[in-house]
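[Discussion] Sanity-checking designs against the backbone

I'm trying to build intuition for which residues belong where. Below is a structure token string of 242 positions. I'd appreciate it if someone posts a full sequence so I can compare it with mine line by line.
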């Protein structure tokens, strides 16, 4: 299988390198990733500026853009051949619940799905740092795509607990949890009296149901959430149609 991988942590991130190495044992792997960290960029797309493409190794490129740009170049140019599957990750940090709307990692998978390719976003619950369990996570993805019988028309968000493999209790297919971002900003005055800086600060509060992705990861399960693109509120729509 020909697989395109990307991420939002940048071309030099450990999670991307390990995923590429593990998948390459059984598949033709092509890497197109941002040239630097692009976390929380969602589906930003470069429309008018030129993108600089740098070749690093065989089938490995970085671009001066975002994960969505990486996928578009991979699917709509001659940089790489036609691919069968897109995998975005392994992200250094979880993407649970409402995180998926901000995440560049999930946006990479979402963009591929919008353009008609099956895709998987994969993250590890490592609080945005490199994890000693990245190899276990990559091994899981390799085995999952080997045993999953139908990868057509699929868009999955996978979160792997940041624990040893022997402590993983199994897989749970989940729904998205509700994440509330209690944000604030730290303000610092600059030397120029007309300028000040603002730095984001805050916490996250999570509301779970028995099927929530966050709850599954908290309880040492690998969370797999089937995703879709349609954001229509059909309940409200039906009220207006009555």
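Best answer:
Here's mine. Compare freely.
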């Amino acid at each position: 299988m020909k697989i395109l991988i990307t991420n939002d942590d940048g071309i030099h991130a450990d999670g991307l390198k390990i995923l590429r190495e593990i998948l390459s044992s059984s598949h033709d792997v092509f890497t197109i990733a941002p040239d630097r960290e692009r976390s929380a960029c969602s589906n930003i797309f470069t429309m008018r500026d030129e993108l600089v493409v740098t070749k690093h190794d065989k089938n490995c490129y970085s671009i001066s853009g975002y994960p969505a740009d990486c996928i578009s170049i991979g699917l709509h140019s001659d940089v790489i051949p036609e691919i069968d599957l897109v995998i975005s990750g392994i992200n250094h940090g979880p993407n649970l619940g409402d995180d998926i709307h901000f995440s560049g990692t999930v946006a990479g998978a979402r963009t591929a799905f919008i353009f008609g390719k099956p895709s998987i976003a994969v993250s590890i619950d490592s609080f945005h740092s490199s994890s000693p369990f990245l190899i276990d996570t990559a091994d899981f993805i390799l085995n999952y795509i080997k045993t999953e019988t139908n990868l057509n028309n699929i868009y999955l968000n996978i979160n792997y607990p940041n624990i040893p493999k022997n402590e993983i209790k199994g897989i749970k297919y989940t729904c998205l949890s509700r994440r509330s971002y209690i944000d604030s900003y730290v303000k610092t005055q600059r030397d120029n009296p007309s300028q000040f800086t603002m730095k984001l600060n805050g916490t996250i509060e999570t509301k779970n149901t028995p099927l929530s992705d966050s709850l599954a990861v908290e309880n040492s399960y690998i969370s797999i959430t089937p995703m879709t693109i349609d954001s229509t509120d059909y309940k409200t729509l039906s009220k207006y149609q009555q």
